[in-house]
Specification:
The structure holds 2 protein chains of 2 kinds.
Chain A (H helix, E strand, L loop, with lengths): L1 H20 L1 H33 L4 H50 L2 H6 L2 H42 L1 H8 L1 H39 L1 H7 L2 H54 L4 H42 L22 E9 L5 E10 L4 E5 L6 H8 L7 E6 L2 E2 L5 H7 E4 L10 H5 L8 H10 L3 H6 L17 H15 L3 E5 L7 H15 L3 E5 L3 H4 L4 E6 L2 E6 L1 H7 L1 H6 L2 H4 L1
Chain B lengths: L1 H36 L4 H50 L2 H6 L2 H13 L2 H28 L1 H6 L3 H39 L1 H6 L3 H30 L2 H21 L5 H42 L20 E9 L4 E10 L4 E6 L5 H8 L7 E6 L2 E2 L5 H7 E4 L10 H5 L8 H10 L3 H5 L18 H15 L3 E5 L7 H15 L3 E5 L3 H6 L2 E6 L2 E6 L1 H7 L2 H14 L2
Parallel strand pairs in B: 3-8, 3-9, 6-7, 7-8
Antiparallel strand pairs in B: 1-2, 1-4, 4-5, 9-10
Helix pairs in contact in B: 1-2, 1-5, 2-4, 2-5, 4-7, 4-11, 5-11, 7-9, 7-10, 7-11, 10-11, 15-17, 17-18, 20-21
């Protein structure tokens, strides 16, 4: 319960912050909305004057004067209405962008362990669907303030005309706000649930599109469609839950002002007959109470708009308030210009949240310029070591040292500049081949790009692409084979020119025949920099100066490839050399 | 669609009733004043009050019915739209995914559908309600004074001109918004799906910089739309003022000439003022309507992408047994043929390895076999039935593809194994895993088969992901398996496991492997060598090595690669 309240408070805080961020726009919208209301109220008064002083008295010049005034009011209303609308859309679009930008920027700061838990589909849904709810509120906020002021103005006028009747008419007002208050909490909770249902459906869409080859290959389309249908049906359920709230709240809101009108008609009418009230006042009263009906209805809708925004904000602030586990040190130690590339993992323990340690007291040292192949069975934590070196994760215990400094004390940017990590799965962005290679160093020139591609053994197939280096790759690099994608990733790392290079199974999909070709390239790349290679092919492993065997979360054996081949049965089994030979 | 339509009619009826109740208010007041208050008679006042009370107490129920009917109808419509779009994702050819970015597709199913919400929930009924009010008021105006009514038409050109100009610009403006939304979502999707690479290469700032212009473009698109919007309703007050001015001028001279009573003038003017209230709402909802229409057009655009792979009405079940025969198959992606005149007969249960350089057309053969595309010439038959004559369901059941990467969906390992067969029991899943010899490996995990694989399966190794993919096949029990480079990315230890799994699952089935590792080719019954889209050599490994031509050269260089220090 307490946690829920905290979340609610965070949501409100966020809504207030968004409103404050657009305060100029909100004020502009409110003022022009007010002016518009004044025009809308004044126009009938001008007409009344024109009839009373022009038509009735057959005074042509007075008629013209009042008609001129009417035209002026019309123009005023037109201008104010236009400005109000422009402000409303501006507030909407800007706050939408602001929320979206904030989520994206924060998500890029959150570390890998967060992204392991929350997928891109879910985050996208918060940055679009949830932010849309906040944007809708911002769209209507100017109008709403105008309407609130109208209600107050009308209330004052009514009280001035006849306070007794006015009090009776105005009784529904506090009831309305009470109803609004009572429902707002429920709207908040229901809307959060609806938004979660949307996020759930969006995640499946994202996953399906991302994994479309598997989906089509195994014929999983139909069951996934069934799953999606269920998620979509949940959206319907949640939306109808809100409609059921609407179906109680909105009719009440329409009904209560009618009671006011009834009171005016019956009580007021009786008092006119009794001579307590003038007929003119009675008519004016009726007109003014009628003016309340529309604003009150709209205000009711705005209560729900606001609560939906708050519900969505709870989901937004959940992302924005997630703290990256990786913290930038407050006073980072400056790395020397030329990073030597001395890497040490000292007594490192690391486990995912379920408490099963992946690394359990790991010690590993790579001298500057040294290359080390890390081998080990599936799940032994090789990729975790790679992630720790690039500081995608922090160890639970122990330390990762770069040039003798704990990486936690260094600026994150410095660490990642010094350490380049090439993943097994290559993520290509929908951009040209050249831009994808240039990824790590945006100011690299074309010559450096083509040299890197050459080294990575990618130049030949790039030349065969329709537009060479300017070929735009599909989002997931569909048009390239796994091996081709990996070679682009290696070229990317070459361009980055890091002091420490980590190849996490980065040549696994390169044809064995092609790997032969890029072996020379790898040798060149490894020259003069510290390299950690995670690989399985003996030929690749043999490129490294030294081999470390990882098992049970520790280094169990170290030595040269040749020594281990000779001396370690475990090593030979690991490389399945017995099976192949 | 029929129940949806019925609900919409119901909602429209409720709106009409609610509008009539609203309109009856002033009429009752007028009756009470004229018949009662002015004559100091309380009876008509009481009658009016009682009628008013009755109508007012009806109103909540009418409004309630309207809300519920419109919401149910609208939500069901959106649901069917979402489901149809998702089904479409499955029907689209792979080529479509190579062109279209994921973010755009996601925006169609999420943001576009969501922006229809206003249209289906409120705009339709509000438009009906305000249209009714407009019509009734106009009737009243004509009834009061046809002459003045004709004169007030002077406002019409303003209204027509402004709405024409709105509709002229609205389509483009709102389509632009939908496009910009898709663009931003694409940028978000890429950045988030690739967040690990972005972080590893310190590209957070650049990624944001590349995204921001798109986000800004979305603001600009809204801004342009807002300028189109104000054409629609900013001129309303001007139209209203002009109509009132000419009516009052005319009425003044008519009154002077005694052609019209003051009461008529007053009533006419009051109705004329009232008329612009529903017109205002009508136009406002019309704006929402156009906005929704743009989103709808985008979704319909997706739904109307022709699915190149369709099922014939006369389609039959593909057999579970029989030879797989490719006869004179030619296929190319634009004009360049990638597979040329390929003929190959694979016996039931035979294992064939497709070998060749990158770009030789091996992957395309895999796509043709699984009918991601249809051959432009020639045919592919399973057990004598052309794949194009088979039902899509039986095609997906009998011929499955195991792609290179083992993509995992969120959920447990068991969920992932039964991806294509959600009805499979836990025992079925275990049997499938046992068949491929991977049960122990997954059961030894802390939560066993219920271990959550997490988004993108980062915690399972590539080999384990492959094993899950193979278990899916064991569960699917197909006639033909197409393996696309499936064994080229594993560590040797897991590779042994995967190979065991594959041979278990391949047992008794026809298997076509797109092999990069020639050790795989060596184990196949026959090897088919492709070059520039053509089949150049087909025979067993030993025979081909003996022939000493293309395959023999590939084999030699493969062995050299293995033997290198």
């Amino acid at each position: 319960m307490g946690e829920h309240d905290a979340q609610r408070r965070a949501a409100w805080r966020f809504v207030r912050a968004v409103i404050r961020s657009q305060s100029a726009g909100v004020i502009g919208a409110a003022l022009s909305g007010l002016l518009w209301q004044v025009g809308a109220v004044a126009a009938p008064l001008m007409v009344k004057q024109a009839i009373d002083r022009g038509v009735l008295t057959r005074d042509h010049s007075a008629l013209l004067i009042w008609l001129g005034a009417l035209l002026f009011v019309g123009l005023l209303e037109m201008a104010a209405g236009a400005v109000r609308h422009l402000y409303a859309i501006r507030n909407r679009a800007r706050s939408d962008a602001r929320v979206r930008d904030a989520i994206f920027a924060h998500a890029l700061r959150l570390d890998a362990s967060y992204h392991d838990r929350v997928g891109p589909g879910e985050l996208m849904s918060r940055a679009s669907s949830d932010s849309e709810q906040v944007a809708r509120m911002m769209d209507s906020i100017g109008h709403t303030i105008g309407y609130v002021l109208t209600v107050f103005a009308v209330a004052v006028v009514l009280l001035v005309i006849d306070w007794k009747l006015a009090l009776i008419v105005l009784i529904p007002l506090p009831l309305i706000s009470l109803a609004g208050w009572g429902y707002s909490r429920r709207y908040h909770a229901q809307s959060e649930r609806l938004q979660a249902a949307w996020g759930n459906a969006a995640s499946l869409v994202e996953e399906t599109v991302a994994g479309i080859r598997v989906v089509k290959g195994i014929g999983a389309g139909r069951p996934l469609a069934g799953d999606f249908r269920a998620r979509s049906a949940r959206i319907v359920e949640r939306a109808l839950d809100i409609a059921r709230l609407d179906a109680v709240f909105m009719p009440t809101l329409e009904f209560l002002p009618l009671l006011g009108l009834l009171a005016v008609l019956w009580l007021g009418g009786r008092r006119v007959i009794a001579g307590d009230l003038s007929l003119g006042s009675f008519v004016a009263f009726n007109a003014y109470v009628a003016m309340l009906v529309w604003p009150l209805r709209v205000l009711g809708q705005r209560v729900t708009t606001l609560q939906k925004a708050v519900g969505a904000s709870a989901r937004i602030s959940e992302v924005l308030e997630a703290e990256p586990k990786l913290r930038e040190p407050r006073h980072p130690i400056k790395l020397e210009q030329a990073v030597r590339g001395d890497v040490r993992l000292a007594d490192v323990r690391f486990g995912h949240e379920d408490g099963h340690p992946v690394l359990d007291g790991l010690d590993l040292h790579l001298a500057p310029g040294e290359s080390l192949a890390l081998v080990g069975p599936t799940g032994s934590g090789k990729s975790t070591v790679a992630g720790l070196l690039a500081r995608l994760y922090d160890p639970d215990e122990g330390a990762v040292l770069l040039d003798g400094h704990n990486v936690r004390d260094l600026a994150l940017g410095d660490v990642r500049k010094a350490v380049a990590l090439v993943f097994e799965e290559t993520f290509l962005f929908s951009d040209t081949v050249a831009e994808n290679i240039r990824f790590a160093r945006p100011n690299a020139n074309d010559e450096e790009i083509s040299r890197a591609a050459e080294l990575a053994g990618a130049a030949a197939f790039i030349a065969d692409l329709p537009d060479g280096y300017e070929t735009v790759l599909g989002e997931r690099g569909f048009s390239l084979s796994g091996g081709q994608r990996q070679r682009i990733a290696i070229a990317r790392a070459i361009v980055a020119d890091p002091a420490v290079l980590v190849l996490d199974d980065a040549t696994s999909a390169v044809d064995a025949t092609k790997e032969h070709e890029i072996r020379a390239a790898l040798t060149t790349v490894m020259q003069g920099r510290t390299t950690l290679v995670i690989a399985h092919r003996p030929a690749t492993i043999a490129l490294a100066d030294r081999v470390a065997v990882l098992d049970g979360g520790r280094i169990v054996e170290q030595g040269t490839h040749a020594d281990l081949l000779r001396g370690s049965a475990r090593y030979r089994a690991l490389l399945a050399l017995e099976a192949v030979a | 669609m029929r129940p949806v339509r019925g609900r919409y009619f119901g909602a429209a009826a409720a709106v009409i009733a609610s509008t009539l109740i609203t309109l009856s208010g002033p009429a009752l007041v007028r009756y009470a004043v004229d018949a009662g208050i002015k004559k100091h008679d309380t009876h008509p006042l009481n009658v009016a009050a009682i009628i008013f009370l009755c109508l007012a107490s009806l109103k909540p129920f009418v409004v309630r019915a309207q809300i519920l009917l419109a919401a149910t109808a609208g939500e069901r419509f959106l649901h069917s739209l979402r489901v149809a779009s998702f089904d479409k994702l499955q029907a689209l050819p792979l080529g479509f995914y190579e062109r279209e970015r994921a973010g755009v597709l996601i925006s169609r199913l999420t943001s576009d559908v969501q922006s229809l919400n206003e249209l289906v929930r409120e705009a339709l009924v509000e438009i009906v309600g305000s249209a009714l009010q407009i019509v009734l008021t106009v009737v009243a105006l004509i009834f009061l004074s046809p002459e003045l009514a004709a004169i007030s038409l002077v406002a019409l050109p303003i209204l027509v001109a402004s709405s024409w100009s709105f509709h002229h610009g609205a389509g483009r403006a709102y389509h632009a918004i939908r496009d910009r939304v898709a663009e931003t979502l694409t940028a978000l999707q890429e950045g988030l799906a690739g967040v690990r690479v972005v972080q590893a290469f310190r590209r957070e700032q650049r990624t944001l910089e590349r995204y921001r212009p798109r986000s800004q473009a979305q603001i600009r698109a809204w801004r342009r739309a807002s300028f189109v919007n104000i054409r629609l309703f900013a001129f309303l007050p001007l139209a209203q003022a002009s109509a009132l001015i000419v009516v009052l001028l005319t009425a003044a001279s008519m009154y002077k000439d005694g052609k019209i009573s003051l009461g008529t003038v007053t009533a006419f003017v009051l109705y004329l003022i009232q008329l612009f209230d529903p017109i205002g709402r009508f136009t406002e909802w019309l704006g929402e309507f156009r906005q929704g229409l743009a989103a709808l057009a985008k979704i319909v655009g997706l739904l109307e992408v022709p699915a190149s792979i369709t099922q014939k009405p006369s389609a039959v079940e593909l057999p579970h047994k029989g030879a797989l025969a490719l006869s004179n198959v030619t296929f190319g992606y634009r004009k360049r043929p990638v597979v040329r005149d390929l003929t190959l007969e694979v016996a039931p249960g035979e294992h064939i390895a497709l070998v060749g350089a990158t770009g030789a057309g091996k992957s395309t053969v895999a796509k043709l076999l699984t009918r991601q595309y249809d051959p432009q010439q020639g045919s592919i038959q399973l057990g004598g039935v052309d794949l194009r004559e088979g039902t899509l369901a039986s095609l997906r059941r009998q011929i499955v593809l195991l792609p290179q990467e083992g993509h995992l969906f969120t959920g447990t390992i068991a969920d992932n194994v039964r991806l294509a067969h959600p009805e499979a029991s836990d025992e079925d899943v275990r049997r499938a895993l046992r068949t491929i010899g991977a049960l122990d490996r997954f059961e030894s995990l802390p939560q066993g088969l219920d271990t959550d694989v997490q988004t993108r399966g980062l915690r399972l190794s590539a080999g384990e992901r492959q094993l899950v993919g193979i278990a899916r096949i064991a569960l699917a029990d197909p006639a033909v398996i197409v393996l696309d480079e499936a064994t080229s990315s594993l560590d040797p230890a897991t590779e042994v496991a995967v190979e065991t799994a594959l041979s278990a699952v391949a047992e008794g089935r026809t298997v076509i492997t797109i092999a990069h590792r020639l050790s795989t080719a060596q184990r196949a019954d026959r090897v088919a060598v492709m070059e520039h889209g053509r089949l150049v050599e087909v025979a067993s490994h030993d025979e081909l090595v003996e022939q000493g031509e293309r395959y023999a050269r590939l084999w030699a260089s493969w062995q050299a690669g293995l033997a290198a220090p």
